[in-house]
Amino acid sequence: MAEIVLDQVTKRFPDGALAVDKISLDIADGEFVILVGPSGCGKSTTLNMIAGLEDITEGELRIGGKVVNNMAPKDRDIAMVFQSYALYPHMTVRENMGFALKLAKNPQSVIDEKVNEAARILDLTQHLDRKPANLSGGQRQRVAMGRAIVRDPAAFLMDEPLSNLDAKLRVQMRTEVSRLQRRLGTTMVYVTHDQTEAMTLGDRVAVMRGGLLQQVGSPQELYDRPDNLFVAGFIGSPAMNFMPATVEGSTIRTPLGEAPLAAGLRQALERANAPRELIIGIRPENFEDASLASADAKQNGIGFRATIDVLESMGSDVYVYFTKEIERAVDAAELAELARESGRADTGASGDTVVARIDTATRIREGDDAELWADLRSLHVFDPSTGRNIALDAEGAADRTVPAG
Amino acid sequence: MARVDNGKKIGWGAANTIAVLLTLIPVLWILSLSFKSPAAIADPGFWPKEWTWSNYSGILQTSQFIQPLLNSIGIGVIATIIAVLLASMAAYAVARLRFPGKQVLIGMALLIAMFPQISLVTPMFSIERALGLFNTWPGLIIPYIAFGLPLGIYILSAFFREIPWELEKAAKVDGATPFQAFTRVIAPLAAPGMVTTAILVFLFCWNEFLFAISFTSTIGARTAPAALAFFSGSSQFTSPTGPISAAAVVITIPIIIFVLFFQRRIVAGLTSGAVKG
């Protein structure tokens, strides 16, 4: 067991492409850290550098206090689970799991004992003498995990280990991974592009984009206090709704309506020397059916009318989709990338769809011209040019806006 | 529908039969000649009227055939082993590594494979004489390796490309040195490719005639195909057709056994199940 420290680690490929740009990250002993981001953000390259499968161009990597930049993977005492599992097809499950121990010249009795123990934990005992080709996807996945845990390494590295499983199995294995990590108490670095996996698994989540670390924090912290537009849009499902807004004196004008600016927020905007044109972000759960919102809460938000395009009832929640005429498109590189990644080609474009999660008690139907209400107490405000979250400076989010009247 | 299918079946059947006959008739012809007595060689019948083993007993009693046969086996096996070993390492580099001059290496390999052998005979003859390799086993083994390598590199690099890159990464993380990763993980998976390569290189060495006849002068190093050309009849006036046919049949048998034995191995794909299936 060991802590892993990345100090200004940079990876530049021979063709000049900068894959990872000066990443600094301290991973404590026994911590479960997730690297998450869209494809091509450098998360897998970072993991490969920790594993020793990629050279580090600049910076320093320490595992357990030792600089390992030039150490071969075999000397780093780390185990890795690959997206494709990378099981050795010519070996049985038993041989696959014992391969590392055999290379380390452990006596056969020790190998047998450890492999049997791991097989018991992972429920693979009856499959030990089968070849990977004869196993199901979930079983192969567990063999890959088993191969990592028999070694009792300083750290586990996981490269999208669940992405080849079907949805149901993935949720099941997610819990299993979490339980395993707690049980073993071993440092784990886990790479995924799935924000749900990141939110549910990690002690801490590191969001990456274009080779840069965007924000590191607990899942709740990332959700509540995103540093910038990208993190705000990436974390959370359905994603945060972004809209353009204009500040005029002490009023904020949004496509949903106008509201007075809360004192705290106004001070933050002034302190940040923010432009008048802003991007605001509202999470789906910060909307409500106006008839269901308490009169008390209503004071802190904007009421508006919208035609409901689609209504999805999930049982526990109801999602409604509506569009708002927006005269000025939200234009930010971060949002464009998010849109590409998720397939939503038109995030924040004018006339864009807004998603709202409302109480199941609602009587709103598809096609209704419904009266909705947006809670502005947890409003996120971003600078369109830098993508920074300006509202972060404004403490006391509860009174960002004075009563709408 | 059924009619069309039948028509297709007949068409393909006829085409296949013609193809098989075209390839088999010369073989059968040699076979029948090998069982004819010297006097009956010129008989018009395809099959001999009287079957005789005399051609076989004749060639198997003379060192003029037994020694070249041993030479063929020895030279073929040694050249094949060395060529496959070198080719697998070179192919691995071609398939997996990025290094300057890779394209040049592949191009050179192709160039050697396409070079007409006859144009090399004269210079190589001089070189071998100067180096003292003329009429020795190494004198044939070395050029056979040189001509077997391009073929081997081509076949094996295709096999290595098929093997998922991540298996090697997994082996490295599991604590393998690059050499162990190659011998314990990659090479076993490429085994079908190595067997295929070995068979093809061995066939080339076994059948090769031009170098064999040019770089040897006695049965000390002469291989079987070259030795056939030196067969003589029992007298000045008898042609050695019978013994040559018998010898041709004898040197074909190991090849047939070889291919039949490894046929399944060649087609077997070992990589299934390595990654998500």
How would you describe the overall organization of this protein?
- The complex is a heterodimer of chains A (405) and B (277).
- Chain A is 26% helix and 29% strand.
- Chain A contains 11 helices and 20 strands.
- Chain A has helices at residues 43-51, 93-103, 108-121, 137-149, 167-184, 195-201, 219-224, 229-234, 263-271, 295-298, 333-342; strands spanning 4-12, 18-27, 32-36, 58-63, 66-67, 78-81, 155-159, 187-192, 204-209, 212-217, 241-248, 251-254, 257-260, 277-282, 287-289, 301-313, 318-323, 353-358, 369-375, 380-382.
- Chain A starts with a strand and ends in a 23-residue tail after the last strand.
- Chain B has 2 domains: 2-42; 58-276, MetI-like (MetI-like fold, Orthogonal Bundle).
- In chain B, helix 2 crosses helix 12, helix 3 (63-96) packs parallel to helix 6 (137-162) and helix 7 (165-173) crosses helix 8 (178-189).
- The longest helix of chain B is centred in the N-terminal third of the chain and has 34 residues, at 63-96.
- The A-B interface holds A 14, 48, 51-53, 72-74, 78-80, 82-90, 99-100, 103-104, 131-135, 137, 140, 147, 151, 157, 164 and B 98, 164, 166-167, 169-177, 180, 184-185, 188-189, 270-277.
Topology:
The complex is a heterodimer of chains A (about 400) and B (about 280).
Chain A: E1 4-12, E2 18-27, E3 32-36, H1 43-51, E4 58-63, E5 66-67, E6 78-81, H2 93-103, H3 108-121, H4 137-149, E7 155-159, H5 167-184, E8 187-192, H6 195-201, E9 204-209, E10 212-217, H7 219-224, H8 229-234, E11 241-248, E12 251-254, E13 257-260, H9 263-271, E14 277-282, E15 287-289, H10 295-298, E16 301-313, E17 318-323, H11 333-342, E18 353-358, E19 369-375, E20 380-382
Parallel strand pairs in A: 3-8, 3-9, 6-7, 7-8
Antiparallel strand pairs in A: 1-2, 1-4, 4-5, 9-10, 11-12, 11-14, 12-13, 14-20, 15-19, 16-17, 16-19, 17-18
Helix pairs in contact in A: 2-3, 2-4
Chain B: H1 2-34, H2 54-61, H3 63-96, H4 102-114, H5 118-131, H6 137-162, H7 165-173, H8 178-189, H9 191-207, H10 210-214, H11 224-229, H12 241-267
Helix pairs in contact in B: 1-12, 2-12, 3-6, 3-9, 4-6, 6-9, 7-8, 9-12
